[in-house]
């Protein structure tokens, strides 16, 4: 009897398997259990099957039937649904005279608003790296917020699918890995609008806007078209790209899996490191005497521990080390950190690794793209046992070249079209509500060109999605770098101007964050306010909340009155203020000689008067025009004014391609 049951089961499995192989139903990886589908629009669902196969798509009691074309591609449009769920999305396919149908089912599907979150590292920066991360992670319990992270990928031609990815709901075990900006944005919308929110996160740090744009619009920009054409001529049949893929694998294998220097006994207390260089920690190493360096650098410090510390676990706090690092104590691996994925950089050193007297701390760092070392402040670099602390600041020895050189590779994520091809095109035509975007740092050197490239990308994505003028909400660059004592020209200011000018395009909105940057960190930790201000923009622009003020003052016009220039602003209906009732700061004024001087500025009702004793016949005013300006103009709703200028004098990047 048992044998008969086995034979019947085997026949059924074989029969079903035969149908499965025949129908060859495949769904793009942007679809998955726990996903959010866009409410209130016809829902596009697509995939692959055998040519001529019949495909059924079922969701919330509605069924749509379609057929795959001669290439096996199919697409169905489901009826619009209001916010709700959870549901199950089922897709069936059969070919010819099949009785059984191959089935793919996605469970726990919600209907809500889906946003594509894209850009470079400040959008990619994780919740675990943001301000108050432990508390934020502990309190994260939002089952109706779902994230899909698109894996990093590049391609010379447009792809139809992303690399494997998984939709996840927000809780304290998952939230740490997601974009902080996108999470705080989605959290606010979920709470205020009481709807499920889906975030498709497609980000890559250190990338320019042209990498996220498709080929066709870029070919109308001569300098970029030249790069594309030259690269296509050099990469015939994709050979250069294929070779680079092999080299990249070798590159990361050497970084992640090699620690050959330990074979040289550098962990020994009596190891002779007299030929190593010395660095006063905390510090970063960004410039080398012999030029740029990418590779592995070892840092070494000998510490003397008192007898009382022996036999006890120690805590070691590395403060703010850069990116990829490995920490060893007396040659024993304590941690391996990849891409700053740690919630903190404090680690326990087990008592069994600790000796009375001299002990050796080793830090193995991958120096990539100009980063390396340990960032200040000094008081975050120490050993501790109980209430006792031993500072690790001061002289550390360091040495490069102890391991194999990294092979030369091409960073195709910087090339025009490559990120669009691999990380945006495969998402189309997934139903979405709009886009949120934080990028620009990698284009500051070509800020003038950004005035063309950025709107071009926005239009490109809207055209490709075919969902009309989808809302495009973006972040203006934060303040960064050291402050200047006098008015100066600034690439960062010019990039912010390009972003400000993009507000002229329909259905766009901008979050100004000129007040929450950090001089020494291009990745400011306060992502809560960034997400909140983007959410305000969404409430006002997308959800039509007339009671929400979403933008700080924006320059509108100037009027010259003798030795004074009068400025008027938009978004100032509730009044203008200087933060903390201080004197207005950040204004500079110039005459026809184009030389700017700090100015006196005073709020007069809904306008501002600007003047300087050094400029008797003024022609132009600038506000917040610097890398890291000291400026304090706000509206009474607590939102900062965007930096601006009233002139059109030639900038630093105007003649750069």
Structure explained in plain terms:
With 657 residues, this protein is of the alpha+beta class. Among the domains are: 215-257, no CATH class; 259-400, Jelly Rolls; 554-645, no CATH class. It has eleven helices and 36 strands. The strands form eight sheets. Strands 1, 3, 4, 6, 7, 8, 9, 10, 24, 25 and 26 form an eleven-stranded mixed sheet that branches. The protein has a six-stranded antiparallel sheet with strand order 11-23-13-19-16-17, with no helix packed on it. A four-stranded antiparallel sheet has the order 18-14-21-22, with no helix packed on it. α4 (180-193) crosses α11 (528-541) and α9 (447-465) packs parallel to α10. The longest helix is centred in the first third of the chain and has 22 residues, at 2-23. Mean pLDDT is 91; it is low at 1-22.
Keywords, please?
Galactose-bd-like_sf, eleven-stranded mixed β-sheet, SGNH_hydro_sf, 36 strands, Jelly Rolls, six-stranded antiparallel β-sheet, disordered N terminus, 11 helices, SIAE, signal, single chain, alpha+beta, about 650 residues, globular
